[in-house]
Amino acid sequence: MASNYSNWVDAADEQEKALANQVENIAIAGKNGSEESPAEAPTNDPDDPVAEIKTEDKDLPASEKSLLQKLLRTKLVQSSKQLEIIQKDPTSPLFSATSFEDLPLRPELKKGVYAMGFNAPSRIQESALPILLSEPPQNLIAQSQSGTGKTAAFVLAMLSRVNPALNYPQVLCLSPTYELAIQTGKVVEQMGKFCPEIKVRFAIRQESVPQGTKLTEHIIIGTPGKVTDWAFRTRCFDLGKIAVFCLDEADVMIATQGYHDQSIKIHRSLKNCQTMLFSATYDIDVMRFAEKLIPDATVMRLKREEESLDNIKQYYIECNSPEDKYQAIATIYGFITVGGAMIFCQTRRTATWLATKLVKDGHSVALLHGELDVSQRIDVLNRFRGSHEKILITTNVMARGIDVEQVTLVVNYDLPTDMNHQADCETYLHRIGRTGRFGKMGIAINLVDGPKTMVVLSRIRDHFGKPIHKLNIDDVTELEQLES
Ligand SMILES: Nc1ncnc2c1ncn2[C@@H]1O[C@H](COP(=O)(O)OP(=O)(O)OP(=O)(O)O)[C@@H](O)[C@H]1O
């Protein structure tokens, strides 16, 4: 499997940059929640995750009774045995009744899947793949919770549909950010390890194709701006020959204006093409639009109460001032001894300010937002993946799709809101979904700095119908004393 990573830090492409940066300000209007109810406190219920962590965490000294400390010190990692148990639970989104052997996959692809350490398909893989691999090809609009293996599902379908004897692009996959495009390319590379004849080309910012060139790679993975440029201006591949079109994070591609126009323009130029849409969230209007766009698609939807994952435990800390908020972060920093954390800010300005202040105070943190150039962004993400920095301070640009295994904690320094300052529930779900991937445990902590933010938090809680427990700031202070 050869993927073309070379030369993608060449010349700047301002149009693509502007569009990619829009993702930071994604605003899918939040829906009004039902009546607000008071936040629940952690209980001693054996089903309560906190109680679960308490009993499992035998190594903690008895004096360290703080909830936050326990949460952050606990290894939130599932062993393969635990994952096996989860995958046998019919209520889990990772449940599968079948094995990869039962799926209509080529032997080389099964080999690739096993080489990645996958033992059994997740629910979305098990149910989407027979549809995606059927003859004649069927269209699919699929929803499945974050971290449940959607990427593997569509990558397996993409690889299955390639005819390596034909040296032109046959599969096109669009992602909203180039980090995500690169990550998907990596999955293609790993899963296609035993199909070395299948070649991938990235259509991302700063990749360029000389005029008159015709691409010979089989799969194009890219962002909408660059793909539009290549399809309609450079004309280095023929959209009419694309047999599979995949829209990852489909809801944001449909709901964000620039991406919407480009994705639809591309879709309209396809002929006899199988279309697949994947996301963890679909706003009602977006789903309606998607169903109109692909009227004959099989639709796999989740009920609202199924959208958020029980293995991600949600908390909030009440802060009375910006200083309190900063203090909460600085304190949390001290307790990140295992795993890693992503801290989401609503603007680049806040993210930069927070990172600068933490660094000034002697903490080691990474900062990633849309204003950084390509090489900086990739360098920062690679360092975070490699745990060189355990904390990544970022914006919505990293809210979707990014899969960094060791992330055990997501902090919403600012809660996600749309342009009307209403709760952006979809972005919330994607942000917290950066932890708790594929059955692992995860923690999400929201900083609430006043009545308006509390309303936003209540809306999010009511929207998903899941408790968001209060963490007492006094505990945090207590922890600090214990730690020193
Ligand atoms: N069948 C499987 N067995 C074990 N691990 C798996 C399996 N499928 C996927 N994974 C792993 O689970 C993690 C999450 O998968 P993936 O990134 O595909 O989720 P996703 O549903 O696309 O998430 P998001 O909604 O955030 O885009 C990845 O690290 C992936 O390697």
SSE inventory with pairings:
Elements: E1 2-4, H1 14-22, H2 49-56, H3 67-73, H4 80-87, H5 107-115, H6 123-132, E2 140-143, H7 150-161, E3 171-174, H8 178-191, E4 199-203, E5 219-222, H9 224-234, E6 244-248, H10 250-255, H11 257-268, E7 274-279, H12 284-293, E8 298-300, H13 304-307, E9 312-318, H14 322-335, E10 340-344, H15 348-360, E11 366-368, H16 374-385, E12 391-394, E13 407-412, H17 425-432, E14 442-448, H18 451-464, E15 469-471, H19 473-483
Parallel strand pairs: 1-4, 2-7, 2-8, 3-5, 3-6, 4-5, 6-7, 9-14, 9-15, 10-12, 10-13, 11-12, 13-14
Helix pairs in contact: 6-7, 7-8, 9-11, 14-19
The protein binds adenosine-5'-triphosphate (ATP).
Walk me through this protein's architecture.
The strands form two sheets. This protein has an eight-stranded parallel beta sheet. The protein has a seven-stranded parallel beta sheet with strand order 11-12-10-13-14-9-15, sandwiched between helices. The protein has helices spanning 14-22, 49-56, 67-73, 80-87, 107-115, 123-132, 150-161, 178-191, 224-234, 250-255, 257-268, 284-293, 304-307, 322-335, 348-360, 374-385, 425-432, 451-464, 473-483, and strands spanning 2-4, 140-143, 171-174, 199-203, 219-222, 244-248, 274-279, 298-300, 312-318, 340-344, 366-368, 391-394, 407-412, 442-448, 469-471. Helix 6 (123-132) packs parallel to helix 7 (150-161), helix 9 crosses helix 11 and helix 14 (322-335) crosses helix 19 (473-483). Helix content is 40%, strand content 14%. The protein is of the alpha/beta class and 484 residues long. The longest helix is centred in the middle third of the chain and has 14 residues, at 178-191. The protein is globular, with a radius of gyration of 22 Å. Mean pLDDT is 82; it is low at 1-23, 25-65 and 477-484. Residues 118, 121-122, 125, 144, 146-152, 280, 401, 403, 405, 433, 437-438 line the site of adenosine-5'-triphosphate (ATP). Residues 118, 121-122, 125, 144, 146-152, 280, 401, 403, 405, 433, 437-438 line the site of adenosine-5'-triphosphate.
